[in-house]
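Thanks for the sequence, V.! I ran acetate--CoA ligase right away. Repeating your input here for the record:
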Amino acid sequence: MEFKTLPVVQGDYQLRDYDETVAAFSWADAEKQFSWHESGKVNIAHEAVDRHAESYRKNKVALYYKDGNRKEAYTYYQMKRMTNKSANVLRNHSTLERGDRLFIFMPRSPELYFSLIGTLKLGVIVGPLFEAFMEGAIFDRLSDSEAKAIITTPELVDRIPVDKLPHLKTIFLIGENIVEDGMIVDFNKHMKNASHSFQVEWMDKEDPTLLHYTSGSTGKPKGVLHVQEAMVQQLQTTRWVLDLNDEDIFWCTADPGWVTGTAYGIFGPMLAGGTMLVVGGRFSTEGWYEAIEEYGVTVWYSAPTAFRMLMGAGEGPMKNNDLSSLRHILSVGEPLNPEVIRWGMDAFKQRIHDTWWMTETGAQTICNFGCLPIKPGSMGKPVPGIEAVIVDDQGNILPPNQMGNLAIKKGWPAMMRQIWNNPEKYDSYFVNGEWYVSGDSAYMDEDGYFFFQGRVDDVIMTSGERVGPFEVESKLLEHPAVVEAGVIGKPDPVRGEIIKAFVALHEGYEPTDELKEEIRQFVKKGLAAHSAPREIEFKDSLPKTRSGKIMRRVLKAWELDLPAGDLSTMEV
Ligand code: 6R9
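Predicted structure:
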């Protein structure tokens, strides 16, 4: 089936006044940018790559890749050819069909991007995995989703428990000296001869695209299923929140194993015809600053943990690079501590913009963006098209300034459409069939700004006072000795719970009792007596997810001597 390709239009996407924009906005208008407006069919890979390759952006760089000395650049024209070749290799060397599941388990490299987009050209669902996953984590995800194929490398392939995965038929290996057999396919070898033309599978906008497994507070990781239509919101927010324009160089530091690394590390920028940078390898202060200067990064999307690590490294390394290309910086994943915002103002002479969303929301929902004046400490306001409220546990909408559950009106384009294999779990997210309840607690002020308070399950009740661990953690981080902090409620017969802080120290500080008392007093003076941790325990480092969230649940398990549950997303 051939469909006419719509011309790429730049359009007027400048936000004017917030209320005016919200009032004038409709998702239906936003959808007109894509081919289904004409044909009723769509494919996110076509919209992200092919239509730009057929436009004035043909020779524009889509992807810069840097890892040590490996430095490559691919235009939209080249991306189209490489993703077509990948799609042909996948089709010719497997039995994959539309709707089947394929996982990608490898470090960031151009091949990861080619094959991920190539998979979507086939209409096959992609499950991205962090390279740090070990056998148990791989097994949980591949068996739950009955995956038929995986793309990986010779270094990682031994972690796939093939014998226990009866549905797994094909392993595409990307690397050197690969010996093929009934199951193993040498991806690069076949890429050499593969045709660079491919007709994408035309899909419905409700057809699934990505399956992101994410950990809840209990039980096994759950498979959050996204659909084609997510692209509408990914593109719209890329323009409004990331403020990405044709001349920008965009760097999203997230790995595609995390939803940020697909929604904004691939699709948002490419749907917008942008130029993105991917930096392989692990975090390094010097390497990151160098990348910003070398590529002249203008828009930068990262996470509080990374900012805190950069902050911890001090001004020294910063002086070696010219970072003046940066014009817009954003953050996601955890609360953006005021301390980090202050550091950002000093270090980059601009404010870091907070954005709030979740794997389940599929794209940004509450953000500091464009025309919106920023209120310190707030995550911002709902992006146009999103309706957010605070509800109590029965689903009643609460008035401003009352803490409750942050909820979003069902039906936004990027919303998850299913929890794989678990419809009951999916339904349990919604109250009254109308509001998606996020599991975060927050309040909204009288101007409609949202303030994050914590995960619902992390809120501490001590002597009848509600304390958000984030507030305490932020204060702890302001102490010069503290580099990381995690705060939990520890059961206490008298007070219900007491506040316990786990703290990692900057180099050069001795973990003494005097320092504990000094830190306690610091929080007491800075916040409130009831917010000061009664107990402080020093640790070399704290357990974090791959996306940088301190895993309070693990701290709690340590404290209570309980099993820590699913640790597959923990950074090692
Ligand atoms: C994109 C992503 C979702 C949870 C979410 C919340 C926390 C995300 C935040 C934030 C405070 C922000 N979170 N953004 N907390 N301020 N700006 O992170 O997805 O990995 O599914 O995590 O992350 O608790 O509920 P995911």
